[in-house]
Amino acid sequence: MTYRLIKDLIAYKIKFGSGFEKELRKIIDLNTCSEQKLLDLKEKEIVKQFRNAFENSKFYKNLYQSHGLTIDSVKNLSDINKLPIINKSIVKKNSADILTKSRLMVFKAYSSGTTGTPLQVYRDFLSTIKEYAYGHFFQQMHGYHLGDPVVSLRGVLDRNTVSYFDKSNNVLYISSFHLGADEIGRIHKMITNFQPKVIKAYPSSMHILATELYKANLELNIPLAFTSSEVLHDFQREIVEKVFHTKIFDWYGNAEQTVAFGQFNDSYYHEFPLYSHTEFADNHLITTGFINRAFPLIRYKVDDIIQLAPTSNGACVVQKIEGRDDDYVILKDGQRIGRLDLAFKKINQLLAAQIIQNTVGEITVNLVPDKGFTNLDCTQLEQNLRALLGADCRIRFEKIETQGLIRSHRGKFNLVVSQIEKK
Q: What's the 3-state SS for 157-204?
């Protein structure tokens, strides 16, 4: 056996061993519980996590005592409103003191940092196994089973490596840095010969592959597609589903392990049982994670904007993940405008787009046009943007290739890329 093969096999045994199977069975059982039973269990988890933080975390003990709270202050779900809200800045300053166990028993993880400095958080072995179990539960509900052939587009491969096959997991990894026109024929042949049941990737990586295949008049047949870690835009979903002959199911979560929603056949995002508790505000979420007791985040503000389903009736059912509240364009008067994906709806001859802002009151819109894209489409797009940004914003259009889309060092895509605060 080669070193890499041994490493893959060990990783597989750790990820999907007896601990994983135990947690997966728990989640499957929870999914059959009544709403009232889940509510009762959630209330117990709230109290348990609060007491864990109060007793074992230096940060929380000081915070809660400074607000006049005691170990008995939280006895039910409604009592959570007594607790102060914490945010990313607070966690950055106090990460070591938030821990409830020794740093020798945990390992570091990081948020993506697509809109700023990555946030360092901590996880232990159990929270990691629980995360794998919830992720697999979501994919299993859509028809994926361990051992099914999977294509995964990853940015972690060496830049000189186009692909790698992990025999233990039956996963063909394709480098997301090699999805351009020069390699697309080779990649198409590899994937076709592999005959995958599933493709997994960031929405932007999947979109780039689909776009390059489309331009080369090539297609794939992959029944299931799972996306995560970025906002899934409508223009991305449309071309991916068409070129791959697939159905995308999106996962929404965070590195902090405080929120997780999965998209199902009704196109809505549903909460997973006992992963966390989510409170909905106008322009953000307030989240309390349950799966990580080593690094508890209680009433943690997440700066993501979501749109609740019209029939949710107070339940955690989400119609759309809108994006972060700092994905915005700044106008000359200082006003910040977000949710600009609305401008690109019904612009049918456009394969991709990205808004770049280097100066207040000015934007450059990079476009990856389809063959039928005309000046009329560009005019309509400008009118759509003007309706959102007003007449005073200077708008310039540039046509680019797919590879020209800006992504973070981890390969992530933002519709709006602002360079203003970085200057």
A: CCCCCCEEEECCCCEEEEEHHHCCCCCHHHHHHHHHHHCCCEEEECHH
- Give the DSSP letter of residue 343: G
Tokens 């060496």, residue? 158
Rounded to the nearest 5°, which phi and psi values hold at 227? -115, 160
Our CA angle for 25, 26, 32, nearest 5°, is 95
**Does the pLDDT value for residue 166 go beyond 60?**
yes
Where do the DSSP E strands lie in 282-349?
285-289, 300-302, 304-308, 317-324, 328-330, 336-338
What is the rounded CA–CA span in Å between residue 198 and residue 352?
Answer: 23
Judged by average pLDDT, the poorest of 133-142, 166-175, 308-317 is: 308-317
Average pLDDT, stretch 108-115? 67
Q: How many residues does the chain have?
A: 423
CA dihedral 237, 238, 240, 246 (to 10 degrees): 90
Q: How far is 397 from 23, CA to CA, in rounded Å?
A: 50
Cβ pair 388, 343 in contact under 8 A:
yes
Q: What is the pLDDT of residue 320?
A: 84
Amino acid in position 47? V
